[in-house]
Specification:
Aminopeptidase, GNAT_dom, eight-stranded mixed sheet, GNAT family N-acetyltransferase, alpha+beta, acyltransferase activity, transferring groups other than amino-acyl groups, single chain, acyltransferase, globular, 141 residues
């Protein structure tokens, strides 16, 4: 993996890449329905794209309330810290905007990943889109 970089994306201009990644990860791999994946928050969210060279390989979004979500990396690029770079970019942007707390709903199997990046579980396990999740919180110092 030579040249991975993260940038803030434009929902309209970058829509094809954002959709391609999320459809691959959430809809095709994890069986989330399109109705569950796409919501009205996308239009107002701050989106992030991870690139290797000029090919988009991952995405995440930040909502105005500090909620980070839709963190997704294409299968061939997992385990290479792309998700970490995306999450840190979202946290950094949240802090830049003065959002002292960041929240997310994590798939249980990924909770350790988020814990390593400063998030703490704040709920019991629950099902969302048929997948076990927990709510997690991070406080900026």
């Amino acid at each position: 993996m030579s040249d991975v970089h993260i940038r803030i994306a434009d929902w309209h201009k970058d829509n094809a890449d954002l959709r391609r990644i999320r459809e691959s990860v959430f809809i095709q791999e994890q069986g989330v329905t399109p109705e569950q994946e796409w919501d009205s928050d996308d239009a107002s969210a701050i989106h992030f794209l991870a690139y290797e060279g000029d090919f988009a390989i991952g995405t995440a979004r930040l909502l105005a309330d500090g909620c980070i979500g839709r963190v997704s990396v294409l299968k061939d690029w997992r385990g290479l810290h792309v998700g970490e770079k995306l999450l840190l970019a979202a946290v950094q942007e949240a802090e830049r905007l003065g959002l002292k707390q960041q929240i997310l709903t994590a798939q249980v199997h990924a909770a350790g990943f988020y814990e390593r990046l400063g998030f703490t579980a704040v709920s019991e396990e629950f099902l969302e889109a048929g997948i076990p999740h927990i709510d997690m919180l991070r406080n900026s110092d």
